[in-house]
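Recall that a protein's primary structure is simply its ordered list of amino acids. Everything else, from secondary elements to tertiary packing, is in principle encoded there. The following example makes that idea concrete.
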Amino acid sequence: MKEKFTKTMARNIFLGGSLFFILLFLALTVGTVRALPQRDHRENITPIVALGKRVWEDNNCIGCHTLLGEGAYFAPELGNVYTRRGGANGGKEFIKGWIQSMPSGVTGRRQMPNFKLSEQELDAVAEFLKWTSEINSAKWPPNIEG
């Protein structure tokens, strides 16, 4: 039995589908709005973390690195570098030492410029990256090395 596809049927499919996806969108939005306050840690922003973010922005670090998946993919992900490189057991010292030792001069390897940051700026960038590593990013990026 061959049934004719009518304008009424098409309209009903369109309206039913639209209603379904509008309700799905609203449900996902409500779920996100409820989950975000539990993932927020803005109260942990200290003046040194704010300075670290300013140094990060002034030197356009995101032009080469990603931070929680956002930015350029030329250099490694830095959203979890603090925990990847030792955490409380030397993560900040690693970050500061790495920045100070650049460029390393190893041939055939991408090199980070030396920004000639002061000790206070190095501490601030390390604190900023520590703060970033504490964000509940829902296991993003999926690859620990970014």
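The longest helix spans residues 7-39. Strands lie at 66-67, 70-71.
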